[in-house]
Amino acid sequence: MAVYPDSPAGFPRHLQAGAMRRRFWGVFNCLCAGAFGALAAASAKLAFGSQANVVFCTLGIIVMATTNSLMWTFFSRGLSFSMSSAIASVTVTFSNILSSAFLGFVLYGECQEVLWWGGAFLILCGLILIHRNLSPPRTALPHKQQ
After folding, report:
1. pLDDT tens sequence across 68-86
2. ∠ CA 126-13-20, rounded to 5°
3. CB 97 within 8 A of CB 120
């Protein structure tokens, strides 16, 4: 009969260092995926704009397909490195939002409103909460355990 401890076993030191590296590469891949997604959207907007000629449209479609495939590649790698799919998804979303704002400003001169930046700030706060290390739960005192 197997006996299971009340609290999970801690990772050895050499696995903890590897976990931090995996976490870094997970975040890095998710940030790249969001940036490539924004590039794909910007190239699609340029390709299918009202004044696009055939050569520009073809080039935009090729760039869109390339950056879209890179986005999915980095996202799948980010998922494999992340602790959960929720962390990877929120990180990609935040990166995509910021990259889209930057590309919109550079390519089209768009400026975002205060409400938009407030929403981006709330997503950043959620990311900080998701990515922080939580301390292990306290065990109850012996006289309080039943």
Report:
1. 999 999 999 999 888 888 8
2. 30
3. yes
Residue labelled with tokens 């004044």: 51
- State the average pLDDT over residues 122-136: 77
- Tokens encoding 53: 């000629």
3-state secondary structure string across 37-52 = HHHHHHHHHHHCCCCC
Please give the full DSSP string across 24-90, using - where no structure is assigned. Answer: HHHHHHHHHHHHHHHHHHHHHHHHTSTT--HHHHHHHHHHHHHHHHHHHHHHHHHHHHSS-HHHHHH
CA dihedral 96, 70, 31, 34 (to 10 degrees): 10
pLDDT digits (tens, 9 = 90+) for 15-49: 456 777 788 888 899 999 999 999 999 998 888 87
